[in-house]
Structures are given as C-alpha cells and as structure tokens.
Write a structure and sequence with these properties.
mainly alpha, YutG-like, 68% helix, 0% strand, globular
Length: 165
Amino acid sequence: MSKEKEMDIVEKTARGWLSDRGVKIDDIADLVYFLQVRYYPDLTMDICKHNINRVLAKREVQNAILTGIQLDKLAEKGLLEEPIQGIIDRDEGLYGVDEIVALSIVNVYGSIGFTNYGYIDKEKPGILKFLNDKSNGCHTFLDDIVGAIAAAASSRLAHGAESVE
C-alpha cells in the first residue's frame, strides 16, 4: 500500500470513528464558535469547520483520535486489565493520560491552544457535556480529544491561518 493511500485510510478512519462515537464536525464547530466568537464577531460556522478540517488533516491528530477511541472502546467492553480498566471506566481525575493525548493535539498550533483547551475542558459545553455523561458510554479519551480539536482549530483561527498549512 502506498504511503499516500495509507494516509487517506488513517484520516477517513479517524473521521469515521468520531462519527461512530456520536461526534459530528458541526458539534466541534459549535465548540470553536463558543471559544472564538467574542474575538471574531463575524465568525461563521463555515470558518469554524474549515479550521477543524485542517486540524483533522494532521497525522498526529489522526493518531491521537484512533488511539484514544480504541482505548475507550476496549474499556467499554471490559477488555483492559486492572487497574487500568477501572481507572479509564471511572475517568479518574488523577489519571491524566487522556489529557496528555489531548495536549498532543492542542500543541499542533502553539501554546495559545492550552488556554482554550483548559477553558473548554472545565466548561464542558455542547457535545462535551454529552461525552462526559457516563450513561452515553466510555469517552474518557474522546471528550478530551474533541475539546483539543476545538482548541487547536481555535488556535489556528487565532493565528489567522485559514489558508496556511
């Protein structure tokens, strides 16, 4: 398989797994809008989606998505060994590995993303509230990943990088 074809498969899989877990681009766009509209009063959902799509095109972001969702799925099925099974099931606050995965996404567009990520992680607006509800499945990694994608897209927007790789 060519490297280009493999890259296409990885991105499509990451996007598909987000969708399969109930996360749509529009949901993430709502988060970007929430974070940035006070700074960009003319901000549109199309601009938010454009920046999200640029973030999702990054291989390191795709890898984080696939890794985090895979761990959530394994935990949901009870296929991890203890004590990690219980730690991920409970989304223990001191675990922190889920945030480390998220920070790898945030860091793609610089340190401004840390502020956006910290804020949105505490507020839990929109889809993040849904993902944090344990009755909706195990999303220990996914909630942080989605918040990080929104924070990275917001950082990209703040850097004025709409047309920059």
